[in-house]
Amino acid sequence: MKADVTTLEAVSAGTVDLADDVFGLEPRVDLLHRMVTYQLAKRQAGTHKTKGRSEIALTGKKFVKQKGSGGARHGDRKAPQFRGGGKAFGPVVRSHAVDLNKKIRVLALKHALSTKVKGSNLIILDEAAIPAPKTKELIARFEKLGLTSALIIGGAELDQNFALAARNIPNIDVLPAQGINVYDILRREKLVLTKAALESLEARFK
What we know:
It is a single chain. The protein is α/β, with parallel strands linked by helices. The protein has two domains: 2-45 and 96-204, Ribosomal protein L4/L1 (Ribosomal Protein L4, Chain: A, 3-Layer(aba) Sandwich); 50-90, no CATH class. It is 34% helix and 14% strand. The protein contains seven helices and six strands. The protein has helices at 20-23, 29-43, 102-118, 135-145, 160-166, 182-187, 195-204; strands at 2-6, 12-17, 122-125, 150-153, 172-175, 190-194. The protein has a six-stranded mixed sheet.
């Protein structure tokens, strides 16, 4: 599969070959859904916590007579029904992560890439580098390319001037090649891959 290469100035810079087994698949929504669920569950901190009745610092002394009070037979102020008592069945510190086979994760990434190709939302850049970290100038270049919502994937190391200029632009994400992931691909309209990113992906899927 052939794809056109462009520069940041929206000038043609030749073509590249895209692997059909990576960019030419018929996207499967079920795989993408499972992968996004996996990513979002894994990023949850799971640090929510409430105190149970065994963790409350209140007296355990029986505070009312067993009989004759006209009320219930309570024996502990730490019971959940009292103000200041422990929470019944409250959240505890835990991991929200779910298991997902590595082969499924790899396949989901391929389907996410294929989704962008099928929707004509994949752009191949010659390189993501600029001489000075000027956000205004970078926005002008993005306008030429029609980028208003995009994930830009660079090589193993990002050009610092480009990263600094892009980080303050709304709906524009910049990641190194090793940071590419399904969730970030799907949450932006366009996917922009540099030649270096393509080489990294080819090596990753070999």
